[in-house]
């Protein structure tokens, strides 16, 4: 197992290629309130193709800071997420003490919380707090994104202001998206 880069200490890799600068990466970290922060890195030129990106003016590298509010995520979203990733035998609810309780076919499943986080995020229950883009500095924008996420974890007022931003034309906020309560 390779050494963890110091910027990623405390973060869990939930879908990164060894060569993440070329093929993308995703890292998650649980916040103090049981909420989760995800830093998603994408190489748009690899994903969409050089010609499309050049024609559309899309930056080569994109790094988003996503937020998922697990304590407030509704049961319907969690169940849909588990079905989406093929873990539909688990019915999961989140307790007030920030721990998972499993009900369903298996009494003691070997599904760690971070895997359930990945299921919910893959399903689309997350809000974008901010994003960084660059044509030349993949490591630099990832560092900025990780730093920003850590700041959000420490500063409740700054995080609340970011969560209260309007996220679409219907008036939904980032907080609404992060809880799966859109519409």
Q: Could you characterize the architecture of this molecule?
A:
The protein is of the alpha+beta class. It has one domain (6-179). 37% of the residues lie in helices and 23% in strands. The chain contains 8 helices and 7 strands. It has helices at 20-23, 44-48, 50-56, 75-84, 113-123, 138-154, 156-163, 174-179; strands at residues 12-13, 25-30, 36-43, 61-68, 90-94, 100-104, 127-134. A 5-stranded antiparallel sheet has the order 1-2-3-4-7. A two-stranded antiparallel sheet has the order 5-6. A hairpin with a 5-residue loop joins strand 2 (25-30) and strand 3 (36-43). Helix 4 (75-84) crosses helix 5 (113-123). The longest helix has 17 residues, at 138-154. Mean pLDDT is 82; it is low at 103-109.
Element layout with pairings:
Layout: E1 12-13, H1 20-23, E2 25-30, E3 36-43, H2 44-48, H3 50-56, E4 61-68, H4 75-84, E5 90-94, E6 100-104, H5 113-123, E7 127-134, H6 138-154, H7 156-163, H8 174-179
Antiparallel strand pairs: 1-2, 2-3, 3-4, 4-7, 5-6
Helix pairs in contact: 4-5
């Amino acid at each position: 197992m390779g050494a963890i880069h110091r910027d990623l200490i405390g973060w869990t890799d939930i879908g990164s290629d060894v060569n993440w600068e070329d093929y993308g990466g995703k890292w998650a970290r649980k916040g103090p309130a049981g909420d989760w922060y995800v830093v998603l890195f994408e190489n748009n030129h690899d994903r969409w193709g050089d010609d499309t990106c050049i024609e559309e003016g899309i930056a080569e590298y994109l790094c988003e800071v996503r937020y998922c509010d697990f304590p407030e995520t509704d049961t319907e979203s969690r169940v849909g997420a588990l079905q989406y990733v093929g873990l539909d035998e688990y019915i999961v609810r989140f307790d007030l003490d920030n721990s998972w309780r499993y009900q369903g076919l298996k009494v003691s499943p070997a599904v760690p919380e971070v895997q359930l986080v990945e299921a919910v995020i893959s399903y689309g229950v997350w809000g974008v707090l901010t994003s960084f883009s660059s044509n030349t500095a993949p490591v630099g924008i990832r560092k900025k994104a990780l730093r920003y996420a850590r700041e959000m974890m420490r500063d409740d007022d700054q995080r609340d202001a970011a969560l209260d931003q309007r996220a679409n034309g219907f008036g939904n906020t980032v907080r609404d998206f992060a809880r799966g309560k859109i519409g």
